[in-house]
Write a structure and sequence with these properties.
It is built from 17 helices and no strands. Helix 13 runs antiparallel to helix 14, helix 14 runs antiparallel to helix 15 and helix 15 packs antiparallel against helix 16.
Length: 307
């Protein structure tokens, strides 16, 4: 333990995985004792057996604590109630389990213990966001940014909150800030592209989607969004090509078939091909209203454009 328990400060007084390496030395010492006293093997073996049984019982008990992240951090909070990080980690698992009210309580406790804890404020914002309490979420995210202005994740979640409340300009601004600190943040870049497309900035939108696909060629949302941005900007042939790439990698992508049908029918005026894509969309859709509308479109094509 001496390399990490002497002059180097640690945030945790105890952490069980740090005993793995030192246990090697303990095992050598134990083997040495057994070897030295092998003439007295009977009492020694009895003592060793009792020790093994006690350690096994302790291991079994500890395994119950390690069943899930939630049980682990509940145990940590019970044993270290004045440590802010244990409350934050417990809240993280509450959020993963969609238990947002206890997450808020745990995070408020963490902030009370450590008022300058930026991560606690960010996670509090996330919990409020999932509760659809958007104003408190924004306040929490802004407090996190004041404490630590270099966290891309905080700008990203703040931007997502602004998206939900319809403040597109502020959302764009914060997605751009997130990308300053983490240019590889795929979600921020994809969402920025969506907002740019919605506000009519098609060249910039396509640029963002292309950057996402350069970082992750299998990103199906960015691939679909790129096709949609091409279509909205009047680049019909590129849009058709991109939609077909989406379908090739994701054969059940309903919206891609639907949008291809629209392009072939309304823009390219090729109703037979449009009909094929609408029929595929009809097979895939599970919404009665959408199915009814698709049947109506197919019927009109057959009526007005017979082969």
């Amino acid at each position: 333990l001496s390399p990490t328990s002497s002059i180097i400060p640690l945030p945790d007084v105890m952490f069980e995985h740090r005993l793995y390496l030192p246990l090697v030395g303990f095992v050598f010492v134990l083997i040495g004792i057994i070897t030295a006293f092998k003439r007295h093997w009977k009492p020694l073996s009895m003592g060793t057996t009792i020790l093994l049984l006690l350690l096994s019982a302790g291991t079994y008990s500890r395994n119950n604590v390690w069943q899930t992240g939630l049980t682990l951090w509940k145990d940590a909070v019970r044993k270290s109630p004045d440590k802010a990080r244990t409350h934050v980690n417990l809240a993280t698992w509450y959020i993963r389990n969609k238990e947002y009210d206890p997450a808020v309580i745990a995070l408020l406790r963490a902030i009370a213990l450590k008022p300058d804890y930026a991560v606690a404020y960010e996670n509090l914002g996330v919990a409020y966001f999932h509760k659809e309490a958007f104003e408190p979420a924004i306040i929490a995210f802004e407090q996190a940014i004041d404490l630590d202005p270099n966290r891309a994740s905080t700008y990203n979640t703040l931007a997502e909150t602004y998206m939900r409340v319809g403040k597109k300009d502020l959302a764009i601004k914060n997605f751009e800030k997130a990308l300053v600190f983490n240019p590889s943040h795929l979600s921020a870049r994809n969402n920025l592209g969506l907002l740019l497309a919605e506000t009519g900035h098609y060249p910039r939108a396509t640029e963002e989607f292309e950057k996402v696909l350069k970082l992750d060629p299998s990103h199906k949302e960015a691939s679909f969004n790129l096709a949609r941005a091409y279509a909205l900007s009047g680049q019909v042939n590129r849009a058709v090509h991109q939609y077909k790439k989406v379908i090739a990698s994701e054969p059940n992508f309903l919206e891609a078939y639907h949008n291809l049908g629209i392009l072939y029918l309304d823009v390219l005026e090729r109703p037979d091909e449009a009909k094929q894509y609408f029929q595929k969309a009809l097979v895939l859709t599970k919404e009665p209203q959408a199915a009814s509308r698709l049947k109506e479109i197919i019927s009109q094509i057959e009526e007005h454009h017979p082969k």
